[in-house]
From TrEMBL:
This is Enoyl reductase (ER) domain-containing protein. It comes from Botryosphaeria dothidea. PANTHER family: OXIDOREDUCTASE (EUROFUNG), PTHR45033. Residues 15-358 form the Enoyl reductase (ER) domain. One of its GO terms (molecular function) is oxidoreductase activity.
Length: 360
């Protein structure tokens, strides 16, 4: 057996003043594995808005640990296993779940332990994880592709949305072609959701302030519809036009609470779903609370979403493999590990359309 690395290169968030940065450092790596622990070599990391928001005062709604290793999404290779590990072998392709306390989705009293937030993240060469927080990754995808399939804090689509529950459990896809989904903004969650919708036979509608970004998204599939909300401020009317007056079955909202009234108005007449998955425009809103009566009238649901569970992640990977979904079309740009600060700056600039990946 080859000798194990004794050190690892990694990035940590700097201390105040804001804006923070990330700094490269070298730290010791334990060479003694606990019985249920695995040492993994991280091959690719994909960034989420959450990762860069933590560097800017007031941009992230929750407290993040100071000087912590950032990022939650990675694809890794197992290089060593503890004596009691049974689910994985050296050479397996794996990834940790974002919330390491969320194994089944039923841990109702467990506090969130989010990688890159209040526990060490994945922007490092090597890491040690417990067996129970790792999942096996699809073999047919490249390191960069499989890395962007993660159920990160921005990408939890499967199982938390009723419509997706139905098709993942085997409902005939031909019935789902009648369903529509609205995505707000061309961000990470939206781009991944577009691919999942297309694979499931669901028609996606995505919004952006940029015609250029919308054209890039439409190249993924002719089924994708786009709305430029600067040119068409009344996005609800455009959604209704595109759906022949019917409205959409669900909305994935990654902008924040300001658009909730418009989201409700865009829903079909009964039992639609709005999932709040992000805060690109922060959580500021200036609307009359009485508008929530429309939610009651439509018997619709607004639900908050964080990271999916380990069970969610495994079922998502199964779906991707069955449909042979390729993810390279939603990778906007790839950076080297040494250029990680530039990757963070690029994501913060908002110029991206899709995922920003760091390759190790």
């Amino acid at each position: 057996m080859a000798s194990l690395p004794q050190t690892t290169h990694l990035f940590r968030r700097t201390s105040a003043p804001y804006p923070l940065t990330i700094a490269l450092t070298t730290e010791p790596l334990s060479t003694t594995l606990a019985p249920f622990s695995l040492l993994v070599h991280i091959r690719a990391v994909s960034l989420n808005y959450r990762d860069v928001a933590m560097l800017h005062k007031g941009a992230y709604p929750s407290a993040a640990s100071a000087n912590e290793i950032p990022a939650s999404d990675c694809a890794a290779e197992v290089v060593a296993i503890g004596s009691a590990v049974t689910q994985f072998q050296v050479g397996d392709r794996v990834a940790p779940i974002c919330d390491v306390a969320n194994l089944t989705g039923e841990e109702r009293d467990a506090a969130t332990l989010g990688l890159g937030g209040n526990v060490p993240g994945v922007l490092r060469e090597y890491a040690i994880f417990e067996e129970e927080v790792l999942v096996r990754l699809p073999k047919y995808l490249s390191w960069e592709e499989v890395n962007v399939s993660l159920f990160s804090s921005r990408d939890p689509i499967k199982r938390r949305i009723d419509n997706f529950v139905r098709w993942i459990n085997g409902l005939d896809v031909s019935e789902l072609t009648k369903q529509c989904a609205r995505r707000t903004q061309c961000a990470n969650a939206s781009m991944f959701a577009v691919l999942v919708c297309i694979a499931a036979g669901i028609r996606p509608i995505i919004t952006s302030s940029s015609d250029a970004k919308l054209e890039l998204v439409k190249k993924i599939s002719p089924k994708v519809e786009g709305i430029n909300y600067k040119k068409q401020p009344d996005t609800t009317q455009e959604v209704l036009r595109l759906t022949n007056g019917r409205g959409v079955d669900f909305v994935i909202n990654n902008t924040g609470s300001a658009s909730i009234p418009a989201d409700i108005a865009a829903l079909r007449q009964k039992r639609g779903t709005i999932s709040l998955v992000g805060f690109l425009e922060k959580m500021k809103a200036d609307w009359d609370p009485s508008l929530l009566l429309n939610l009651m009238a439509k018997t619709a649901t607004v639900q908050g979403i964080q990271a999916g569970s380990k069970l969610d992640y495994k079922e998502l990977n199964k779906f991707l493999e069955e449909k042979e979904v390729r993810l390279n079309s939603i990778i906007d740009r790839t950076f080297s590990f040494e250029d990680s600060p530039a990757a963070f700056d690029y994501l913060w600039s908002g110029k991206h359309v899709g995922k920003v990946v760091i390759k190790l």
